[in-house]
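Example record for the data management plan.
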Amino acid sequence: MAIRKALAIMALTWAIANGLVSAEGPKAPQVTPEEFEAKLGYQTGTVTLNNGMATIRMPPSFRFIGPEGSGRLLVEAWGNPPGAAEGVLGMLIPAAVSPLTAEGWGIVITYDEDGYVDDKGAASINYDKLLKEMQESIAAANPKRQKAGFQPMTLVGWAEPPAYDPATHKMYWAKELAFADNTAHTLNYNIRILGRHGVLVLNAVAAMSQLEAIHAQTPEVISAVEFNDGHRYADYLPGKDKVAKYGLTGLVLGAVAAKAGLFKLLWVGILALKKFIVIGVVALIAAIKRFFGMDKKKDPHDAPQT
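Corresponding structural encoding:
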């Protein structure tokens, strides 16, 4: 009961902060989940990123939303801080599921223009040792996270160990993360595509229960995204182009870790409250009303219990 009350209070706080309810009680919803999703600006077919730097030939199983729609989804629907949308080039959203449901997930696309990443020694990287270093770094950074108002985070382990294809210069791995004492763990699935001047970063953030589905769709995502002529890894000009200060190990650790010796604290979008946040404005208000006894009658907008 205490946990349920805490969740309800946190949800109420979020709703007030976002203008969905006031201190005096719930307001009429400004938009339905269907209306919200309709304005995300879904695209299919061929999509160009960052003024022609790269192209995504969208597989039928995904839809694309641009920077503006991505920002709305990440911040307004998924409850991330506003800074989470900074630098986002777009998102890939599975066509079979709405991102405004508990089963929803997406792949966030950004670009690190740190230079050409030398892939020498890829086969000799000790990923078990790297995992241990990352776990220790995250644990050491938790006091700062908590001081900043974020939950402490634990890197449980690899959900999938890193794998690099030297022919395509593409890499992927997945991490299992735990936040505070939440029993539902978070999946952070990472894809990196190396280019002439930097790296395309694709991060899928979902629940651990979605690992199988994401793993099954990873090959088509990897093959769908390519740098265009002049930006490809093979276009690198030795002695003229900038070289990144880190290699493949730095990609896994995070660029800041490699350059500054500190673990890069990345935002993570789907936390324990995601389901409560994105079940829809109407259902959220109805749930708050039921919990605090504001409405004893059956609300016609009540969401089905899951």
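Summary line stored alongside the record: Residues 1-29, 255-306 have pLDDT under 50 and may be disordered.
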